[in-house]
C-alpha cells in the first residue's frame, strides 16, 4: 500500500535544542495513527516537524512519496497536508463563514466546500454568522477541523482536538473523525491525551518517551493490555 507519510531517522527541535531523536514512522494512504505519550515528550513537535515549523537536524520526511523536508510550510499545505493545532487558532473577529472561506484552496477542485463542512458539523452550520469568539470550545474545535478540511487535504494532522471538551462533544467529534476516515479515505495522525479513545480510533500507534519512539505498531495490543499501555505512557488509558 502506498505511503502517505514517512519519517526516516528524524531528529528535530527548536534551534539547537533537539526534541525528537531518531524517530521513524510510516502511515499508509488512508491509514490512521495515534501519537501517545506523557506531556512534553515531543508529540506536538512531531506534528510541527511534518509542517516545517521546527529545525530538522537529521533524517528524511516524505509525503505521498515526495521528499518534503526542505519545503516551506505553505508548500507542504498545498501538497495536501491539513493541520489542526492544539490552540485552534481560529480568527476571533471573523464569522464562521469567513474563517472557512479564508482557508479554502482556490482552484483545488477538491471535494470539501463550506456546505460540506456544515454537513459534517451541523451545529457549526447553525452558527455560521457568529464570530469566532462567540463560539463554545467545542464549536471552535469543529471550526478548526473544518478550516483544515477546506484546504482539501489527503493527510490530516490533529493536535489534541478533544482537550477540555464535554463528553457529548468528544463523542460528536470522534464520530466525525470516523466519517472522515471511512467516507473520505483521509490519512489521519491524531495526537491525544485520551489514550484509549485514540487507540480505539486509530489502527496504529506510536508512543514517544523523551523524544524517542518506544512503541510503533498496531493499536490493538495496547488496548488489550492496559498494563503495557500504562507502563509506556505512565498513566492508565
Largest sheet: 6 strands, mixed
Radius of gyration: 17 Å
Give the name of the CATH superfamily of the domain at 1-80 and 185-237: P-loop containing nucleotide triphosphate hydrolases
Number of DSSP strand runs? 10
State mean pLDDT (0 to 100 scale).
Answer: 93
By oligomeric state, this entry counts as: single chain
Flag low-confidence runs.
none
Succession of helices and strands? EEEHEEHEHHHHEHEHEEHH
Q: Can you identify the CATH class of the domain at 1-80 and 185-237?
A: Alpha Beta
Provide the CATH topology of the domain at 1-80 and 185-237.
Rossmann fold
Going across the major beta sheet, what is the strand order? 6-7-8-3-9-10
Give the number of helices. 10
* Share in helix: 25-40%
Terminal CA distance reads 30 Å
Strand-residue fraction? 25-35%
Provide an overview of this structure.
The longest helix has 18 residues, at 167-184. This protein is an alpha/beta fold. The strands form 2 sheets. A 6-stranded mixed β-sheet has the order 6-7-8-3-9-10, with helices on both faces. It has a 4-stranded antiparallel β-sheet with strand order 2-1-4-5, covered by helices on one side. The protein is built from 10 helices and 10 strands. It has a domain at 1-80 and 185-237: Rossmann fold (3-Layer(aba) Sandwich). 35% of the residues lie in helices and 28% in strands.
Explain the layout of strands and helices.
Layout: E1 3-14, E2 17-28, E3 32-36, H1 43-51, E4 55-63, E5 66-67, H2 73-79, E6 81-84, H3 96-101, H4 114-120, H5 122-125, H6 137-149, E7 155-159, H7 167-184, E8 187-191, H8 195-201, E9 204-209, E10 212-218, H9 220-224, H10 226-233
Parallel strand pairs: 3-8, 3-9, 6-7, 7-8
Antiparallel strand pairs: 1-2, 1-4, 4-5, 9-10
